[in-house]
Structures are given as structure tokens and as C-alpha cells.
Amino acid sequence: QVQLVESGGGSVQAGGSLRLSCAASGRTFSTYAMGWFRQAPGKEREFLSTISGSGAVTTYRDSVKGRFTISRDNAKNTVILQMNNLKPEDTAVYYCAASGSYTRRTDSYVFWGQGTQVTVSS
């Protein structure tokens, strides 16, 4: 069992930055690939980025490449999403999640945080 708690959301103007953190419980954190997802009102939850258990491999959604960076610290059971050059269309609830496999498939992620709101104004 893994419990995930996100933090770092908030309101920023377009062009600004936010750093989301996800703290995980449990001693098996490094065995999970970690992902970030988001869900805007009236839309489906969408994949943003994933990082392998070791942190050596990452994948990004095309629309966030070059703006978002995922990283993890297995010693601290933490995964980070650094978001730069934010746009109004980035407004959503952001979730971190854990999966037993390195994948961008939402349905492969078995543990989810409660989400944190990100609002970007123009």
C-alpha cells in the first residue's frame, strides 16, 4: 500500500512557475514508477509525465515538453513536478500516482493522491 499526498498547487499568472511535490508513504517507493496527471473541469484525466523507479527514464506529454520537469528523490520518498512558463490551459487539478510498471496509461496507476489545484490566469 502506498499513500500519496500532493502539495504546491496555487494560483499564478501566465508565464509563472509552480513546483508540485508528492510525498509517498511506504518502504517500497523506489519499486514504483511515478506519474503526474491532471484533470480540468469537464475533461478526462490526462497523462502529463512519468518517471521510472530509479529516476533514470522519463516521459512527457507533448504539450508540456520543455516546460515541465519530473524528478524523484527515493531517499525522501518524493516526486516533484517543476512547471515553468505556465499557460491558462494548464489550469486543472493535478494528481500524482504510482504504478508497478513504467507507463503513460492512466488505468495502470494503482495508487493516487487527492490532487492539488493549479490555476493559471492570463
How would you characterize this protein structure?
The chain contains no helices and 11 strands. Helix content is 0%, strand content 50%. The chain is mainly β and 122 residues long. It is globular and about 40 Å long. It has strands at 4-7, 10-13, 18-24, 33-39, 46-51, 58-60, 68-73, 78-83, 92-99, 109-112, 116-121.
Radius of gyration: 13 Å
Structural class: mainly beta
Helical content, roughly? under 10%
Number of helices: 0
Give the CA-CA distance, first to last residue. Answer: 40 Å
Shape descriptor reads: globular
Topology as a string of helices (H) and strands (E) = EEEEEEEEEEE
Strand-residue fraction?
over 45%
Let me know the number of strands.
11
Mean pLDDT: 97
Low-confidence stretches: none
Q: Could you describe the largest sheet, including whether it forms a barrel?
A: 7 strands, mixed
